[in-house]
Amino acid sequence: MSVNKDIIIALDEGTTNAKAVAFDSNGQVVVSFSRALEIQTPREGWVEQSADLLLAASLDVIARAVTAVGAERVAALAISNQRETVVGWYRATGEPIAPALSWQCSRTAAFCHALRENGHEPQIKAVTGLPVAPLFSASKMRWLLENTVDGFARAGRGEICLGTVDSWLLWQLTQGESFYCDYTNAARTQLMSLHTADWDTDMLALFGIPREALPTIKPSSGLFGTTSGGGTIPDGIPVMAMIGDSHAALFAHGLGAEGCVKATYGTGSSVMAPVSSAECNVTALATTIAWHDGESLVYGLEGNIPHTGDAVAWMADSTGLSDLPPAELTQALSTLPRSVDSTLGVFFVPALTGMGAPWWDENARGLIHGLSRGVKRAHLIRAALESITYQIADVIAAMRIHQGFTLNALMVDGAPTKNDWLMQYQADLLGCPVMRSDVAELSATGAALLARKGLMNLNVAQLRQYLPEHMTFTPDIARHVRLQQRWQAWQHAVVLARR
């Protein structure tokens, strides 16, 4: 970076929107542009998005940010992205072979069940750190090839590219010159060995994915390529960081400090803790790569929950609350749970496409348990919000089994965390401080920090001056004791959802 080129633009390509955020030389947000994205559910359990629209929205918000700050000031781009979502495209044309298969999609549940029935899960977990589940990318890649004419043969000849969203966007930004993904996204495919940090021959064979179809894996910080032929985006801007959005948020919270566990509250949730090795004896959790900062590789212990903010959105739709204007809806989600003392015994288990960590049960289905005549909309909305906190507590409980795990504070981010009632309930339930970043662009911040590290050749300690501040919710220990009974009753409802 220089006096003239002092701006890093970070693209945060999420499930429901694409956002471009421009950061100045002090790490402060200068401008931010967002564009909504649509999700399609053509069949039960199928969740997909248009790969072309993901790209169009991303290019649009980047171009608007470049225009707002001036192209001459842009030093670099950085990308954080929704993870596990898979895109397949033709190498010759760059055209997608099908819609992007979302991380939420469970269309490969039968294949994953067969893997478990045939005894492959222990090997998969040992190599990749991940349990068998439709969430991860490999089975989705296989589905794409199975449903494309001569898909496996063409992929084997390198005619079809398969990648996570970061590699899809990079390919298009560089006009096909760069075909890379970073370690964090590769670690979520179920095709990369945590022990070699490369595509694993046995996993490729098991899922039937040709190595020729996959991108080269690179550290999260460093040069991935330069923009070319983008029309509204100037040529020659270096892409200096790529990282999965949850990993980026963890990096932006505390740069991997011990005991700082991160929970991102979004459509779904990722609970992640930095750990010192890839060894994990907790089968219900995933071991992954938290990031590679260009100098060293950091591992992460993670639990993924598919329906948290999505659960509240579903309940708002089902109770008519979503008919309110956005500002009024946000206000209602904050005031309604406060307006009642409890849920009157209602629990909402939002297994809308199955359950993720620590249960990993794609056959579970959502339920509302404990309804009585006195239950009103406020009780149902409160039950949906409480379900977020219980699911995160379930993952934290599984993490405590891991040797060396510590929880000093839960670092939180994402739109639902703006709800103060929800954050206090989470702190009281866990019995530890909940520290909220009020920076809406936390994943973008993490990606921008990694780009800054590469551009300026900084070490991790030198990045601390750019970290955002947090607001702390201190737990009420007396209430924490009382809420343990509620949490136990929630777990009974989970058992019912899994029958």
UniProtKB/TrEMBL annotation:
Q: Which InterPro entries match?
A: Carb_kinase_FGGY, Carb_kinase_FGGY_CS, FGGY_C, FGGY_N
Q: Which UniProt keywords apply?
A: ATP-binding, Kinase, Nucleotide-binding, Transferase
Domain Carbohydrate kinase FGGY C-terminal stretches: 262-451
GO MF annotations in UniProt:
kinase activity
The record's annotation in Pfam families points to: FGGY_C, FGGY_N
Q: Which residues form the Carbohydrate kinase FGGY N-terminal domain?
A: 7-251
What highest taxon heads this organism's lineage? Answer: Bacteria
Q: Which PROSITE patterns does this one have?
A: FGGY_KINASES_2 (PS00445)
* CDD domains found in the cross-reference section: ASKHA_NBD_FGGY_GK
- UniProt family annotation: Belongs to the FGGY kinase family.
Q: What is this protein called?
A: ATP:glycerol 3-phosphotransferase
Organism field? Rahnella perminowiae
